[in-house]
Amino acid sequence: MTPMQEQLVALGAVFEAAVLADKIARTGQVSEASMGCMLGSLLVRDPQTTLDVYGGDDLNLRDGYRALISSLERNPSALQREPLRYSLAMIGLERQLDKRSDMLQIMGSRLDQIQQQVEHFGLVHDNVIAACGGLYQDTISTFRQRIQVHGDMRFLQQPNNAAKIRALLLAGIRSARLWRQLGGHRWQLVFSRGKLLKALYDMTRN
């Protein structure tokens, strides 16, 4: 994979988390494989490649790629507005998190505990999702900037769905961090749109 493709895998995962959060907010439903892919990405500490973070391939990131493509193409009829808004917010929150070494330390030790829960219950168990959602609440939710998720109140008010959405936002911020560590930058989304789109078209064709 080229450096740009590696960046796009991570950025596609930010958008994937946003798409899934939006889906839960609107329909209360999301596939277990997609949820597992994003939750699993929180627990990979020393990946050999970027794809290793997401289970070794990018099959569960395809919806994220599509949402990213629609944002870069700037086609009003195809644009997924809420996922775009959530994605940009996650990228912004990651920048704030980066300045908080105390919070990063808390997250590291809490993720170690969550890893033990995963070994006991399995990756997409309610207890694991609740723990990830709780970690988001205790850390990212304390920032002044908040992500307001819009959807159907019938689904948003269910505690299990609220925990899933928070867990996904946490995973999205983890992917935003990876994107930046791989050299990704917000300016690329403005000034390198053509290059990014060309690479994304190739990646989604394969």
TrEMBL record:
How does the protein associate with the membrane? Peripheral membrane protein
Question: Where is it localised?
Answer: Cytoplasm; Cell membrane
Q: Which UniProt keywords apply?
A: Cell membrane, Cytoplasm, Membrane
The UniProt record lists the keyword Cell membrane? yes
- A Pfam family assignment: DUF489
The terms describing its cellular component in GO are:
cytoplasm; plasma membrane
Keyword field contains Cytoplasm: yes
Similarity field: Belongs to the HflD family.
Report the protein name in the record.
High frequency lysogenization protein HflD homolog
Give the organism the record lists.
Ectopseudomonas guguanensis
Show the taxonomic lineage. Bacteria, Pseudomonadati, Pseudomonadota, Gammaproteobacteria, Pseudomonadales
